Amino acid sequence: MDNSKKVNMTREEYRNQKNNQNNIDDKKEEINETKTKIENIIEEKSSKESNKFINDHSYKFDEDEDEDNDNNMANILDDEEFPKRKKRLRPWAFWLFLIIFSSLLIFSALSIYNWLKDSKNIKNLNDEISSKVKPEKINIEGKLINPPEGNKESDYWYYVKLPFYSVDFAELKKKNSDTVAFIHMDQTNINYPVVQTTNNEYYLTRAFDKSKNYAGWVYMDYRNSSTNLSDNTVIYGHGRLDKTVFGSLKNALTKEWQQKKDNYAIWLSTPKKNMLFQIFSIYTIKSESYYIETSFKSEDEKQKWINTMLERDTANIKTPVQVSDKILTLSTCLNSNGDRIVVQSKLVKVQNRTKD
Question: Any residues with CB less than 8 A from the CB of 237 and at least 6 apart, and which?
Fold first, then answer.
């Protein structure tokens, strides 16, 4: 009896426990469902807020995306793939760099100072010469050189009507005995005494008074003669940026300069003659010796040379040149690459001077 009761109670107790457990599980499930609903509501609201933020700021993400990717990649490479090797500038390298930089700075400053000083000295010297020796225009007919036959419309007739320029060579020779000519060209700063010595290097770095000056002076090729013109007389001068010496010869390359008829005349005076030249070719060319040939072995050789000079003309001048014409070539540097500006002309009239 007692054992049976004990067993029955145990079963009843078990059933009660089972029912209680089921009730607990039901409550847990109900709680979990409620929790899930709450999480879904929160997630839905959070998702809406996130989408709104992204939509409102999408332009920002677009702009920064590439930059962020680059920065992230750089950080990865720095932090992970390429480690921990930071180079330091050694003290001796820093001082070496400082010394080189300072030296270059000082050299550049001195170069600019010397350039400006040379230009100022050249300008002052030429102003002094101009105050004492002023070219005079003289209206003398002179001797015509190779006039075009039967062509009264040629520009030749216009230029031979222009006056000569004449200067006092006695005064110029007091300043420098190397003076052999005086040259003038309209619409440029070319209004200089021309010197000549036994080489083409001396006056590259000497002023008219023979003082050291890297602006140089205007000089005639040592192979030429001022008393008896060569086939081609060549006159040089530096192409200075401030337009001293032959720096203003580059004016002849401009359309504005080329549109004025009077600009195509060059006046050259020597102690024995006043001369007028008519320009027939203007061009630029790499440094060479062909255009500065001063004499030719035959007429055919000279004619070939003349044809080449005419073909090089970029100003479309179309002035005819004969084999018997005396040529005057002006040459200067265009840039530091060795390019040259060349202006070539032919003698159209001459007048003999009385001795200075």
Answer: 190, 192, 216, 217, 218, 219, 245, 246, 249, 330, 332
H/E/C letters for each residue in the chain? CHHHHHHHHHHHHHHHHHHHHHHHHHHHHHHHHHHHHHHHHHHHHHHHHHHHHHHHCHHHHHHHHHHHHHHHHHHHHHHHHCCCCCCCCCHHHHHHHHHHHHHHHHHHHHHHHHHHHHHHHHHHHHHHHHHHCCCEEECCCCEECCCCCCCCCCCHHHHCCCCEEECCHHHHHHHCCCEEEEEEECCCCCEEEEECCCCCCHHHCECCCCCECCCCCCEECCCCCCCCCCCEEEEECCECCCCCECHHHHHHHCHHHHCCHHHHEEEEECCCEEEEEEEEEEEEEECCCHHHCCCCCCHHHHHHHHHHHHHHCCCCCCCCCCCCCCEEEEEEECCCCCEEEEEEEEEEEEEECCCC
Q: What is the mean pLDDT of each run of 10 residues along the chain (356 residues)?
A: 46 61 64 67 58 50 48 48 54 76 75 70 81 84 91 92 93 95 95 97 95 94 96 96 92 96 96 97 96 97 98 96 98 93 98 76
Neighbours of 179 (CB within 10 A): 23
Rounded CA-CA distance 121/228 in Å is 33
pLDDT on residue 118: 72
Give pLDDT, residue 4.
44
Alpha carbon of 269 to those of 9, 207, 230, 301, 303: distances in Å? 149, 20, 15, 28, 27
How far apart (Å, rounded) are the C-alpha atoms in residues 74 and 248?
55
Chain position carrying tokens 């847990």: 28
Query: What residue type is 184 in one-letter code?
Result: H
pLDDT, position 194: 98
- Dihedral (Cα; 257, 260, 261, 264), 10-degree rounding: -20
* Exposure on the CB side of residue 194, measured as CA atoms within 13 A: 28
